[in-house]
Amino acid sequence: MNQQIAEKNQAAECDFVVYGTEVVPTFCEEIKDISGENVLQCYQCGECTAGCPAAFAMEIPPNRIMRMVQLGLEDKVLQSATIWLCAGCETCATRCPRGLSVAKVMDAAREIARNKGIKPGEPKVAVFHEEFLADVARNGRAHELSLIGFYKLKSRNFFNDIPLGIKMFLKGKLALLPERIKGLGEVRRFFRKSKKQR
User: Fold this and answer.
1) Where are the domains of the chain?
2) What pTM was estimated for this model as a whole?
């Protein structure tokens, strides 16, 4: 039994070796500059992956993404669906014995991928990500009805959630108009400033 587990783990480690992939030595530093996380402190304990609620859907587990960043495997990281599937819940940061936030690293990788025009591994998740940010820029916070509407238009997935949407609307869960917030001008200035920095 232990022999089978050891062989399975060894096979999993072997499939991590990436031949013919360009190594970008500055990638780790770029991630650190954007995220504020020193990825080199990660010693691959796997706590981030063990606690990640989205890990089951990721083709590359979070701890391997961290290792790939350490190794400078920029293309593999930026083209993976994993960086788009991270929910940013920060469970990884809570569990990490080094206090690292894999969520911030994933966010930095998404930003680099967007800036380089790399097509996301999960296109619909990327569309939702873009629409969520646009909705917050417009309203200062997420307005579910407009977020859903714009997402459905851009993802071209118009009708599959209509029965659920009607139920939610009838129960008062979806407001017709966005709620006004204090400091909307500040939020919009923040988004304009961040666009200029790109």
Assistant:
1) 20-115, 123-197
2) 0.69
Angle between helical axes of 62-71 and 27-35 (0-180°, round to 10): 120
> What is the Cα–Cα distance from 57 to 124, expressed in whole angstroms?
14
CB 49 within 8 A of CB 17: no
Q: 98 Cβ partners below 8 Å, 6+ apart?
A: 41, 42, 43
CATH number for the domain running over 20-115: 1.10.1060.10
Above 60 in pLDDT, residue 196? yes
Nearest CA to 69 out of 44, 89, 94, 98 is that of: 44
For residue 7 the two structure tokens come to 């062989």
CB atoms within 10 A of CB 164: 9
Residue pair 77/97 in contact (Cβ under 8 Å)? The answer is no
DSSP 39: G
Q: Distance from first CA to last CA of the chain, Å, rounded?
A: 53
Tokens representing 111?
A: 């930003």
Q: What pLDDT, in 10s, does the model give residues 81-121? A: 999 999 889 999 999 999 999 999 999 999 999 889 988 87
Q: Which residue has the tokens 């108009």?
A: 177
Residue pLDDT, tens place only, 172-185: 888 888 888 888 88
Which residues lie closer than 8 Å to 23 by C-beta, 6 or more apart? 71, 72, 73
